[in-house]
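[09:14] KT: can someone run the structure on this one? pasting the chain below
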Amino acid sequence: MADQAGDSPSENKYTHSFETEPPYETREYKFTYPSIMEAQIRKLKHGLENWREIILEAKRVFVWEKQWHPTAIIGGSTILFTFLWLLEPSILTVFSVFGLVLTIFDYLIPSIGGSMFKPEMWTARKEQEYEEFCTNVILYKARLELSWARFYKMKSTNRKMYFLLITITLSALAWIGCTFNNLFLSYVLVTFLLLFPGMEHNGAIRKWSEYISTYFMELMRQTKSKADQEKND
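[09:31] RB: done, structure tokens below
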């Protein structure tokens, strides 16, 4: 009967057309976050709206989109601390000048931002990149809070390990503070913080964290095995 109607079963078995569905590459998947985080992301986007063009340009530098970006970061930090070394200002002067510069920029950017960055220059791609930046900031904030909560919880769950980590860390910091110059330590710390986004983006932080975690786990295992062996002896 199907042959008499001019249609074969193989021709009518599948009638669904896949042309109505977008190809896999063009489908967008959006993660959903808790309402508290969503509110924090919206608040951050609104608070940094006047700085969004500058933030995106700075983000491209700090994540090392080009090979010369880390060199420029280290060079800028070196020049800044060289001036501080030559001028030898007090800590109060450094923080005052730093706050003064931020205040001036915070006042000028909203005033001249409209003339420097036209609304038509803001594209959908920039909006998505800006939203990703704000989302990552909130996610890192949540990760830091969670890490601190886990570490503080160790005080009640594993007091020996908590005491050992605190003692070793504070002793190491005290030794470093007595050995190296304060300005040099500030230079190393600031430069590391400036390079951190790029190292995180390129996976270097993850590799170092895995190496350190493996080292400490192996150290704990060896310490525990020695303690068990001494008990058996």
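[09:33] KT: thanks! The longest helix spans residues 124-157.
[09:34] RB: yep, looked fine to me
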